[in-house]
Amino acid sequence: MTDKLTVSVLGTGIMGAAMARNLAKAGHTVRVWNRTRAKAEPLAADRAHVTDTPAEAVQGADAVLTMLYDGHTVLEVMREAAPALRPGAVWAQSTTAGLDSVAGLAGFARDHGLVFYDAPVLGTRQPAEAGQLTVLAAGPEEGRAAVTPLFDAVGARTVWTGDDGAAGSATRLKLVANSWVLAATAATGEVLALSQALGVDPQAFFDLIEGGPLDMGYLRAKAAMVLGERLSPAQFAVATAEKDARLIVRAGADNGVRLDVAEAVAERFARAAAQGHADEDMAAAYFASFDGKPAS
Known about the structure:
alpha/beta; 9 strands; N-(1-d-carboxylethyl)-l-norvaline Dehydrogenase, domain 2; Rossmann fold; six-stranded parallel beta sheet; 296 residues
């Protein structure tokens, strides 16, 4: 097989659109579909073929990449695509999904003769647009020659976690990583809110921790988004962060672990979404500390 593939990208939101652009830039033939076609249309300028249905998108594809909201949505869309799926095609499932969903999606792949890769990615809008995502991948050795060019186009690094995509080892690692990312995001919002409530200049806090073990580039980046009112366009949206936090809580509960911080973080994102911040960057969880608009 040539290293130039015909790739179907199902889902062209923040991450899917960026991944589709980088696949096209790498010379692959890219066919895209999104439930709201208008969100996919701009990709035509990047030489992607915009389609009306999932089945049209996957017609003749060597590889399918799914980047949708959750596992249920992925299965629904793949069922729509089923009549046109080519047996033997590789499927990189990059949506962050629950562990139970991964097993179901792998079963769908097996039933339709697809080579399944559990392949969530670590990164947000900026690294996605730059092709600098980290791909976490699990799947059979025999299909990796076909899927590696896809991963190389969208990411700077691929971390292989196993050879059985159905076991969900890549998703397990993604949920662990996201538990840290989401907790750090929520903590950033709280430290800014507390600073405001106590009349402390946030810069005094940053100066205090500078260069020490408590300092963190991610803290500073997310804080700058809040302080500079740069929450749109989102790097990673509040609504999606809430969904991921709830997946983390469920994964812990299903495996005998109570995750109090993750549960509180999910509720914090839910409050921010209810206040009208669902589509803003997840740093907007800051607003969940206030009943109304923060005092200036």
